[in-house]
């Protein structure tokens, strides 16, 4: 089955700096890569996703890049703010109805 | 997000008891999933369902049972709770590619 690894497990940045979280996957058939943000005590919520036919996607301060050859994808948050502090999860899946394989999460702390 | 609910939100039970966690969606999405979330493990799939009366095991299904007699409901039952099943449980639906999660049930097994 698929194996998704996520690094780092914890990340602290100063407010205004950028944060980068990286994930690798093992199954070359995976073609959908969502990122979730989970605040303390809340449910995971989708913040951005990318499909295998796209190399990069951006939404305001958040961007995701995908390197299919190397089987890795990354989340980039620019101009970080304290409200970006949360746990971020990456995931990989093949098609609708197939399970998501999640990374183990990155706890991001933005220091004011 | 309000379209998917879970109950109870918090549950304390004892080892050996049967516990059922409920998941309800107001939509009619075919796919539904149950995950457990534990520190250091992220979200792990317990069971999923492609439609009413169609269910399949995930990677951590031992000790759990599901049913899906109606499209909108997907209950998860712990047949004989163990301490290792102390966790936060999330239900999810998948209208297309993305999965949307319920608010979660925090379960403590004493």
Overview of the molecule:
The complex is a heterodimer of chains A (112) and B (110). Chain A has 112 residues and is mostly beta strands. In chain A, strands 2, 4, 5, 9, 10 and 11 form a 6-stranded mixed beta sheet that branches. The radius of gyration of chain A is 13 Å and the shape is globular. Chain B has no helices and 11 strands. Chain B is globular. The relative contact order of chain B is 0.33. In chain B, 0% of the residues lie in helices and 53% in strands. With 110 residues, chain B is an all-beta fold. In chain B, strand 9 and strand 10 form a beta hairpin. In chain B, strands 2, 4, 5, 6, 9, 10 and 11 form a 7-stranded mixed beta sheet that branches. In chain B, strands 1-3-8-7 form a 4-stranded antiparallel beta sheet, with no helix packed on it. The chains are: A mainly beta (112), B mainly beta (110). Chains A and B meet through strand 5 of A and strand 5 and strand 10 of B.
Given helix and strand content, the structural type of chain B is: mainly beta
In DSSP terms (H or I, runs of 4 or more residues), the helix count of chain B works out at: 0
Q: How are helices and strands ordered from N to C of chain A?
A: EEEEEEEEEEE
Total E-strand runs of chain A:
11
Largest sheet of chain A: 6 strands, mixed
The helical percent of chain A reads under 10%
Tell the overall outline of chain A: globular
Average pLDDT score of chain A: 95
Q: How do the helices and strands line up, and which of them pair or pack?
A:
The complex is a heterodimer of chains A (112) and B (110).
Chain A: E1 4-7, E2 10-14, E3 19-25, E4 32-38, E5 45-51, E6 56-59, E7 62-67, E8 72-77, E9 86-92, E10 101-102, E11 106-111
Parallel strand pairs in A: 2-11
Antiparallel strand pairs in A: 1-3, 3-8, 4-5, 4-9, 6-7, 7-8, 9-10, 9-11
Chain B: E1 4-7, E2 10-13, E3 19-25, E4 31-38, E5 42-51, E6 54-57, E7 64-66, E8 76-78, E9 87-94, E10 100-101, E11 105-109
Parallel strand pairs in B: 2-11
Antiparallel strand pairs in B: 1-3, 3-8, 4-5, 4-9, 5-6, 7-8, 9-10, 9-11
């Amino acid at each position: 089955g698929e194996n998704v690894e996520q690094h780092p497990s914890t990340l602290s940045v100063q407010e205004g700096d950028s944060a980068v979280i990286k994930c690798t996957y093992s199954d070359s058939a995976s073609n959908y890569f969502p990122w979730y943000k989970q605040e303390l005590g809340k449910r995971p919520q989708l913040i951005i996703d990318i499909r295998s036919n796209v190399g990069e996607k951006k939404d305001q301060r958040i961007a995701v890049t995908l390197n299919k050859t190397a089987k890795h994808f990354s989340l980039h948050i620019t101009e970080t703010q304290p409200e970006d502090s949360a746990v971020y999860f990456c995931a990989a899946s093949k098609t609708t109805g197939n399970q998501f394989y999640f990374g183990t999460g990155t706890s991001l702390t933005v220091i004011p | 997000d309000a379209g998917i609910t879970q109950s109870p939100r918090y549950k304390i039970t004892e080892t050996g008891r049967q516990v059922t966690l409920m998941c309800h969606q107001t939509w009619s999405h075919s796919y539904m999933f149950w995950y457990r979330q534990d520190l250091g493990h992220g979200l792990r799939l317990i069971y999923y369902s492609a439609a009413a009366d169609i269910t399949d095991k995930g990677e951590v299904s031992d000790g759990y049972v599901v049913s899906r007699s109606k499209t909108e409901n997907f209950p998860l039952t712990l047949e004989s709770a163990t301490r290792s099943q102390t966790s936060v449980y999330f239900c999810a639906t998948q209208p297309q590619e993305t999965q949307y999660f319920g608010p979660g049930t925090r379960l403590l097994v004493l």
